[in-house]
């Protein structure tokens, strides 16, 4: 019997052969797609290799919906990064490598989501809606962070440090602006809508409420990330942007899962 999809990965029959075929197909498909997509100026060569690993995990556990959600996140994040890139580059605020992301960026953004996707593959089916809400929230938070940072650096009129509200130069760790915060909220909402459109939030409760939860959690996690940048990241040099990104996505996922569990216990 073929693999059965019900909003989560579920191989219920035909033993290990079906599992091997399914994961083999996931690997081949992602390798082929990355070979074509690697011509796009989105990731470094090593970044594309790690993206292929991530894509294989996502396709193998959540199928096309989970895979597509992260592809959309990558495309939207890269597009936002390139908005006003020349202006940001002239001011020394642009992302390095022409905006191309490396392996550290891939996993800083997606490690939490990949872990939740793997859990969806092995956890009881009743857990899947909660885990998928956490999955959606982690990427909503990351897209919110990217939108807020990139829009704020380019179009933020008044940038202040989140902990003191004192004016600071754009690009300062922990800096926020009204324009950047609005962009963060929009980014979180867009990612929530993408996940909903792909069916990843099905079964978690009333869709409007789940969308609001994922959006708000994504925005809150972004604010917390700014606070971490303004405090801990300034003191601890080993706390890189990628580690902070990982913390942000984990916070978003845990908040979303916790709030959903309180509202709708397993």
In short:
With about 270 residues, this protein is mostly helical. The protein has helices at about 15-35, 45-80, 85-90, 105-120, 130-155, 180-195, 205-230, 230-235, 240-265, and strands at about 5, 10, 160, 175.
Describe this structure in words.
This protein has helices at residues 15-37, 45-82, 85-90, 103-122, 128-155, 178-197, 207-230, 232-235, 241-263, and strands spanning 4-5, 9-10, 160-161, 175-176. It is mostly helical. It has one domain. The strands form two sheets. A two-stranded antiparallel sheet has the order 1-2. Helix 2 (45-82) crosses helix 5. The longest helix has 38 residues, at 45-82. It is globular, with a radius of gyration of 19 Å. Mean pLDDT is 83; it is low at 1-14.
Strand order of the largest sheet: 1-2
Q: Rg, please?
A: 19 Å
Would you tell me the structural class of the helices and strands?
A: mainly alpha
**Rough outline:** globular
Number of helices: 9
Largest sheet, strands/sense/barrel: 2 strands, antiparallel
Residue-averaged pLDDT: 83
Helix content: 55-70%
Proportion of residues in extended strands: under 5%
User: What kind of assembly state do the chains in view correspond to?
Assistant: single chain
Tell me the number of strands.
4
Order of helices and strands: EEHHHHHEEHHHH
Distance between the termini: 30 Å
Which spans of ≥5 residues are poorly predicted at pLDDT below 50?
A: 1-14
The total number of structural domains is 1
């Amino acid at each position: 019997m073929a693999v059965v999809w019900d909003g989560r990965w579920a191989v219920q029959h035909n033993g290990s052969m079906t599992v091997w075929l399914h994961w083999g197909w996931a690997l081949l498909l992602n390798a082929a797609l990355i070979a074509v997509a690697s011509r796009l100026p989105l990731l470094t060569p090593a970044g594309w290799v790690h993206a292929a690993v991530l894509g294989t995990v996502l396709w193998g556990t959540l199928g096309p919906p989970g895979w597509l959600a992260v592809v959309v996140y990558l495309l939207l994040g890269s597009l936002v990064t390139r908005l006003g890139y020349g202006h940001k580059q002239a001011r020394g605020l642009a992302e390095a490598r022409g905006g191309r992301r490396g392996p550290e960026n891939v996993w800083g953004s997606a490690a939490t989501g990949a872990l939740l996707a793997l859990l969806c593959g092995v956890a009881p089916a009743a857990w899947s809606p909660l885990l998928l809400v956490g999955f959606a929230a982690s990427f909503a938070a990351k897209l919110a962070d990217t939108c807020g940072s990139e829009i704020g650096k380019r179009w933020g009129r008044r940038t202040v440090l989140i902990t003191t509200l004192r004016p600071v130069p754009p690009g300062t760790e922990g800096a926020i602006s009204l324009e950047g915060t609005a962009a963060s909220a929009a980014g979180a909402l867009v990612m929530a809508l993408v996940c909903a459109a792909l069916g990843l939030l099905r079964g978690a409760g009333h869709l409007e409420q789940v969308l609001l939860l994922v959006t708000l959690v994504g925005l809150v996690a972004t604010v917390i990330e700014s606070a971490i940048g303004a405090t801990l990241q300034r003191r601890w040099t080993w706390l890189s942007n990628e580690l902070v990104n990982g913390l942000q996505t984990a916070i978003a996922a845990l908040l979303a899962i916790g709030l959903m569990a309180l509202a709708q216990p397993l």
